[in-house]
């Protein structure tokens, strides 16, 4: 009678113990740093991080974290204060986060791809007076020094003798600091409701916003690796950015289980399978675009000579899932759905191609389940209400907006720091009964007849490209700083052979009808200097007049549907050419040539 019940049982068997362990840790006030220090006592000499040929044991990382804690304590910081970190992936990143956690200080994780206005904005929102910067990013920081002159800036990776005036060597401080343990009483004021870190997300409007990750949420994130079948014997390959929630999942989960991390500064196609084989990697986290890159490469003899038992992540589309799994002989692919600021989590353990989770009538009624899929207005990205003002659940075989309940204990602090507007926009109140509160992901999903969920589309003011959320408002604000642009309407468009959506900007111009080669080159340079590459528009459309709603808001839906279809769009279209470092007129030949490149 219920052929899908067996798939639910897989979720229950894996998720039940994880849920109970997380609840017990939260109830006992147990923190991530407590878990790490416990693992140090259990196996001090076990490798914790392997990085660029070096092995860092749990004990060594703890000693480095103690040094960081002593330095930060001398600055007079404690629970409620924050330190901004501007790093690429490195062991220093991890032990610096652990060091500030020993004091209950919050780490603000600044995206290391940012520069200019977005970088200064992100640092300012951390409300920290202290900024620690990797030496490789000093040039980026120096460009913005006049706007950051109220910060004490420390360089990680440089001695004082090599630094310009105004910067202090963090390495020199580390050399002088003692590695002796920091007693737990120094963080006695820290509770599970204290803030562990800020992870920046584009959200749906404006510049990057710090999402507040509370200590209890960090604990819950750390339990997910065991949900995916992880244990203490695993070797986890981590190449996703530590400033992102994806990277946080892998290293926090490794602490919880006591695993070893093989850490990479960034993803490398050249060394990927070599590393997997060399270090006996058993698990790694993916994003869909990465899987497509791997699948596009010539066959490597090492690609099946591995000990991988499971991979986990999001964005692996159905069209390449089976090819990827078969070619690389991956026993289990765990696709999941969540958000940095979200309160719910969905996944499936059934190897169901393309499915991001399950929401059967049985699972929906279990205590603790918070996810619902409701009918929505695609223009506003908000739920549709019935005659009683309540949200309307979709039925199997339908599309809808995914939302998740926010329990009372998670309502103590806002989703975002210093952004009342962003918080209000993501909250759905009185959804099913008076007083309830739900988080709106802004994503639509499809629920099939067996109650598997599939990602459908991202609504509203963001789209996802290269594993990053792109705020259309942020990009538009930066584009309109160009003197010949009157307005910019930014949206995402589908690109064949690539996951997510690439950026497209429909522009209205000041006293111009089109852009000449000089304007196009200027536009390209402006984007290069002010936007991360993933947020830079791939396409430009020149409008003779803005496309607005009756209330003078930008209309995106119709423009996004038309995209860059040369058979539909009569306006001038251009495409970014990174070889020529400009934008060039779009033709079928040009489109075919550029889209066949491995990277856009």
Automatic annotation (TrEMBL):
Enzyme Commission number, as recorded: 6.2.1.3
Gene Ontology terms for molecular function: long-chain fatty acid transmembrane transporter activity; long-chain fatty acid-CoA ligase activity
InterPro entries in the cross-refs: AMP-bd_C_sf, AMP-dep_synth/lig_dom, ANL_N_sf
Keyword Lipid metabolism: yes
UniProt domain AMP-dependent synthetase/ligase: residue ranges: 36-361
Enzyme class: ligase
GO biological process annotation, one example: long-chain fatty acid import into cell
Transmembrane segments: none
Keyword Lipid metabolism: yes
Family: Belongs to the ATP-dependent AMP-binding enzyme family.
Annotated protein name in UniProt: long-chain-fatty-acid--CoA ligase
Organism, as annotated: Lottia gigantea (Giant owl limpet)
């Amino acid at each position: 009678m219920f052929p899908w019940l067996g798939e639910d049982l897989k979720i229950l068997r894996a998720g039940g113990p994880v849920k109970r362990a997380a609840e017990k840790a939260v109830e006992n006030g147990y923190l991530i740093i407590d878990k790490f220090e416990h693992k140090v006592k259990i196996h001090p000499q076990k490798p914790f991080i392997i990085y660029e040929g070096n092995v860092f044991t749990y004990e060594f990382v703890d000693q480095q974290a103690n040094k960081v804690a002593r330095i930060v304590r001398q600055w007079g910081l404690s629970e409620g204060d924050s330190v901004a970190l501007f790093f690429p992936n490195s062991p220093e990143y991890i032990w610096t986060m652990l060091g500030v956690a020993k004091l209950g200080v919050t780490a603000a994780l600044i995206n290391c791809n940012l520069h200019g206005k977005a970088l200064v904005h992100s640092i300012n929102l951390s409300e920290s007076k202290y900024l620690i910067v990797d030496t490789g990013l000093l040039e980026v920081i120096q460009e913005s020094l006049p706007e950051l002159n109220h910060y004490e800036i420390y360089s990680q990776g440089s001695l004082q003798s090599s630094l310009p005036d105004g910067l202090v060597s963090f390495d020199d401080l580390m050399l002088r600091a003692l590695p002796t343990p920091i007693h737990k009483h120094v963080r006695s004021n820290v509770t599970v409701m204290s803030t562990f870190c800020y992870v920046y997300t584009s959200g749906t409007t404006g510049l990057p916003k710090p999402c507040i990750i509370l200590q209890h949420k960090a604990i819950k994130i750390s339990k997910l690796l065991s949900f995916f079948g992880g244990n203490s014997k695993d070797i986890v390959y981590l190449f996703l950015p530590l400033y992102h929630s994806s990277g946080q999942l892998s290293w926090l989960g490794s602490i919880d289980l006591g695993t070893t991390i093989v850490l990479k500064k960034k993803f490398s196609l050249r060394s990927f399978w070599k590393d997997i084989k060399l270090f006996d990697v058993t698990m790694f986290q993916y994003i869909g675009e990465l899987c497509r890159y791997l699948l596009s490469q010539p066959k490597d003899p090492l690609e099946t000579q591995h000990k991988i038992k499971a991979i986990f992540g999001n964005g692996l589309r159905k069209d390449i899932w089976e090819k990827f799994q078969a070619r690389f002989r991956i026993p289990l692919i765990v696709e999941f759905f969540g958000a940095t600021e979200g309160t719910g989590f969905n996944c499936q353990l059934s190897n169901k191609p393309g499915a991001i989770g399950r929401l059967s009538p049985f699972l929906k009624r279990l205590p603790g389940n918070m996810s619902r899929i409701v009918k929505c207005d695609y223009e506003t990205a908000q739920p549709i209400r019935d005659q009683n003002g309540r949200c309307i659940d979709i039925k199997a075989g339908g599309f809808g907006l995914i939302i998740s309940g926010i329990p009372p204990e998670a309502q103590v602090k806002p989703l975002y720091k210093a952004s009342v507007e962003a918080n209000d926009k993501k909250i759905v109140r009185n959804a099913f009964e008076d007083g309830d509160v739900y988080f709106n992901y802004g994503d639509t999903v499809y629920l099939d007849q067996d109650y598997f969920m599939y990602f459908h589309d991202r609504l509203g003011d963001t789209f996802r490209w290269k594993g990053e959320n792109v705020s259309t408002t942020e990009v538009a604000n930066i584009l309109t700083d160009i003197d010949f642009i009157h307005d910019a309407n930014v949206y995402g468009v589908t690109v064949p052979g690539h996951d997510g959506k690439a950026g497209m900007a429909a522009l209205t111009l000041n006293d111009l009808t089109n852009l000449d080669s000089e304007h196009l080159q200027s536009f390209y340079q402006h984007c290069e200097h002010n936007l991360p590459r993933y947020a830079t528009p791939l396409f430009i459309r020149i409008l003779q007049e803005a496309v607005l709603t009756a209330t003078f808001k930008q209309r995106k839906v119709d423009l996004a549907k038309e995209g860059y279809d040369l058979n539909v769009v009569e306006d001038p279209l251009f495409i970014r050419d990174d070889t020529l470092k400009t934008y060039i007129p779009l033709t079928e030949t040009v489109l075919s040539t550029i889209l066949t490149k491995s990277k856009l």
